Structure of Cytochrome o ubiquinol oxidase subunit I:
Amino acid sequence: MLGKLTIDALPFYSGVAMAGALTVVCGALGVVAIITWLGRWRFLWSEWLTSLDHKKIGIMYVILALIMLVRGVVDALMIRTQQAFAFEPHGYLPPDHFNQIFTSHATIMMFFVAMPFVLGLFSIVIPQQIGARRVAFPFMNSAGLWLTVSGATLVMISLVVGRFSTAYWTAYPPQSGMQFSPDVGVDYWIWAVLLSSVGSILAGICFLVTIVKRRAPGMRLMMMPLFTWTALCASILIIFAYPSLIVAAALLGLDRHLGTQFFAGSDGVLNYISLFWIWGHPHVYILILPACGIYSEVVATFSGRRLFGYKSLVYSMVAITGLSLVVWLHHFYTIGSGVDVNAFFGRAAPLIAVPTIVTIVCWSLTIYLGQVKFSVPMLFTLGFIVTFLVGGITGFLFAVIPPSIHDTTFRVAHFHNLLIPGALFGYFAGYQYWFPKAFGFRLEEKWGRRAFWCWIVGFCLAFMPLYILGFMGMPQRLNRSDVADWQPYLIVAQAGVLFIVCGVTFLAIQIGVSIRDRKTLAASSNDPWNGRTLEWATASPPATYNFAAVPHVQGIDPWWTLKQAGTLDHRSARFHDIIMPGKSSAGIMLGAMSFVFAFAMIWQIWWLAAAGGLGIFAAVLSQTFHDHAGQRIPASEVEAIESRRGVSPALGREART
């Protein structure tokens, strides 16, 4: 009846695991209790969970990312604490449990922190930056969100029922095969990755078509904001790269349960590695490119001037996009690919540094020529510029093939050096920058600055020692060591993670303080930063339809140009009825049924898998009957909304749907 699911699936094997399970269960029950006590279930369902408004979907993406960030940072603290104090003794984590935490940390940070953050900012900002009222495919956007949520739920539920994978986040065979991982951990990983990957592809298609087809009249490609350009590049990479990961995970599942031999033997392992990193290395740039777009917007706004070298920045982003697809083996010169293959990737890898240097030079000159305001988004940007240079320089060392640093903590430090300053700092900058656009009030600066300094200090302490340990020969993924010379560096790295924990805590305090003081922090205008791009031409927060009148764009930084020209008179604007997407429960039902199906397949509960499969089919089928349904907002209501919000949509001509 319940397949392989028994009472032994509960985490009785470890007190630490049981504490984690109780934390997850109590946290979930606490949220349910609070919503019930406030009587907000109907509001939550009708206004958020079933909404097809791209802004609300984006906010839910970011909320998911922040929740999973807490789990990911806690996992990191547990890993570094074990390594710091497990000198000769075994420490507080058994090897099997350590491997689970190691795998879940990387999986969560890559799939359920970074990607939801990226897609959330895309969903909130991109339609407004290009002058669109909605995304091209509202239901596809919703489905992408809820499939990602279902994947994240699988990772969280593995704390309570069963165990997570011990084969690390890359899941290389044969370690991820049945012989070495006979439990359900790898299956949890496979299904979480499959669900989130399908969700990411749906979102990538949605944003690609939105940018290509729904730009405001007059906005040519070379007039798009840099963030929109990076979203376009990242969407293309998502569509090209993620199918490789889906194929790798699906074939791995077939090898595990149907006895196929796709990844058997040394050649099979090399095939898996290639498939995985055909996705993995472009994925790094899927995460970094949008952050570069955010840095571009922040630098221009807080320097008070147009970006220096706009075209150079665009060409650099396009070059990085292309090169990211042809460097996937530049960390694997020791796996026996051959001299010619190694030579090709050895030459390709350094090339990607050229457009990266161009972007940093353009930002630096923009800052140098402008009048800089050191607000929190700008601090994260400056922190990125300083620390990312170290990650870029260390990347050169992999290109010259020194075997002594491959598969050591040097690689761990390099990878985190790219993704924390290169990606996560960018998301924090964007989150701080666009928060008043989404909610109508700014985030409190004092706690934001404290969070920034904790993150920057914590990053340096946590990862710079790993470069040294890599040169000293410490392999990655060790759960304990008996080398006395390594121990001081590991203790410093653990202290760095404590600073990062403080940074996360300060971000949480910042949200609480900002909500408490939201009247004081309310944006004095719809454009609190004196922005340059179209999203600041709408109300903060915007109406459902974003623009009462479709903007007509005549150059780069159209909102800044109009402000300087003083043509912001709204009295001549004409309004028309606007048709917007209605609500749909199909997205959340698709996510819920996908979770049920995946959970049932993991535990081989066949009747439940059949029910989940039918539920998926019913959710998709139900949406086909409502695909063209929408809500009409009369012109009189639009005018009343705009009057109440005090918006001055001078960009508008006629607003036809």
